[in-house]
Structures are given as structure tokens and as C-alpha cells.
């Protein structure tokens, strides 16, 4: 305790942090994990997997890198959780398969574009797309997951020997569309309304299916 100028006893400074914590760095708290995920999502979207570091994510989230490692044991683990698709791939497959066979192509295009059209979905999908081409491990994980949860179920309903080839060729069409519209932003595809895109792309997809 110290004596105040008026002769009273001054209380310790209640606003002063205890210990020797570094100023400007937030300790773990209720929303710290969410802030780390937000920072990681933005970094992966802007830079891709290879150019993103744990330290950079920590700086953006306002925490120490050690705290990021406390919540996530590796950059791969952080990527997998931060880049969680806005729609469960199993639900995507179920939506594609739920309906008449002669409308399968239209459902594929509609659902694919639907995933990309929301702000959050687009951010996550762009991050995934960029990271897949810069990391063999991420590409392998995504390839195996998408094949098992989407490509195989759709292939099975076609009932033809080259079904997997056909579905994979459809994927090349859709990935190309996503690159042009959402990453390169090439006009007029980038600003064309979704309904028009579905009408224009569906016949091409139907060719692979039939």
C-alpha cells in the first residue's frame, strides 16, 4: 500500500494486468478459437495453403502463435476445420440424387453454384481451391473426400461402365466455371445471374451424363 496525497491509503491499480503478460496479445478466452478460425479462413483465402503461416494467423487473430498450437496441433488441422465446407458433401450428393433422372444435370449445376454464391461459401471455396493447387497433401485429402462423398454416389446412379470418368469430366466443367466466375472474375460470366448460368451450363453437363 502507498499513501495518497490526501493522506489516505491508495489502492493498487485495478486496471493493471497481473504478471508479466505482453501488452497487445490476447490470452485464451471464450471467442479466441473462433477468432483464430476467422483469421485462418481469411489468410487461406487470400494466400492459399503454402503461403499461410501459423505466425501470420496468430498476428491477425491478436494472439500468440503458441495459443494457436494450443487449439490446433498443425496447420493442416487448422485448415481442415477453418475451411469446413458450408454444405456437408454428403448432403450435396443427396440433393443431387433426389429427383428425376432427366433433371440430374440441372441439379448438379444448381447445387454447385449454390455452394459458391453465399459470401461465406465463396470465401471458403476459394481458399480450398487455391490451397489444393499449392499443397499435395491438401489435394489428396480433398480428392479422397470428394470422391468418396460425392463422385462415387453420383457415378453409381448412372449405371454405365465409364460413369466415374463422366462424373469427373463434369467436375472439370464446374471447377473451370468456378475459376472463371469467382477467382479470375472474367466478364460477362462473373456478373451473369445464376439462373442464366444454370440454363447455359446444364446442356453441357447433360452431354456427359447421356
Automatic annotation (TrEMBL):
PROSITE patterns: HTH_TETR_2 (PS50977). SUPFAM superfamilies: Homeodomain-like, Tetracyclin repressor-like, C-terminal domain. Residues 1-33 are annotated as: Disordered. Gene3D superfamilies: Homeodomain-like, Tetracycline Repressor, domain 2. This is TetR family transcriptional regulator. Keywords: DNA-binding. The lineage of its organism: Bacteria, Bacillati, Actinomycetota, Actinomycetes, Propionibacteriales. PANTHER family: HTH-TYPE TRANSCRIPTIONAL REGULATOR RUTR (PTHR30055), TRANSCRIPTIONAL REGULATORY PROTEIN (PTHR30055:SF235). Residues 30-90 form the HTH tetR-type domain. GO terms for molecular function: DNA-binding transcription factor activity; transcription cis-regulatory region binding. Residues 53-72 bind DNA.
